[in-house]
């Protein structure tokens, strides 16, 4: 498990980004990390991987702490950044050289993911487009087989077919001993993968729950009954949509609509 306790971070005295964040991320789950621009999603991921040091609080994976920045910790946690540059070398050599830093790196899995993305191995990284660079980064991140994989806007730069391939690869590589965290604004690209949601607002974690739990308490309706307790409403091109208290069987939740409800509703929404 990855345990985050009372985590706070500020870039300056006037800019508090995260305030008393506490959660436990459990293996076998894919977490969706959501928030408006500037709410601290990338900052949180950088704190988890150890690129930033918290002002207060701590992050632990088992007995390992992020603040130690030890090789043992980095072997367990991988961060796929939103934007990063790849070195000028052959595509296969990149995996062989950098994969040596991760004890569970699987070169065959790296090559398999590249094949799924139709990346030609004979080319060098310098010859690839930005979208192809992203595919190589995703293939390498999955092949490292770390216990915790943090992904910041992983579908940026991918075309529609490649987004479908990404979803298939992620599902294929997920296992009961791994934790995946995806920070994204492109909710529709990956919402079918999530089973847990984390929503940040004004530096605080306002939602930390499974989709099953959410669906057991709320549902989305276009025609609420007079007895329904309306939590949030939103006007769309074909009429109003409502988030209401769920008094029937579990219902499927639209994550994008749910995100709007939790971040824009004037009243507090509790689980």
UniProtKB/TrEMBL annotation:
Keywords: ATP-binding, Nucleotide-binding, Transport. InterPro entries: AAA+_ATPase, ABC_transporter-like_ATP-bd, ABC_Transporter_VariousFunc, P-loop_NTPase. Pfam families: ABC_tran. Residues 2-227 form the ABC transporter domain. One of its GO terms (molecular function) is ATP binding. The keyword ATP-binding applies. Coiled coil: none annotated. This is ATP-binding cassette domain-containing protein.
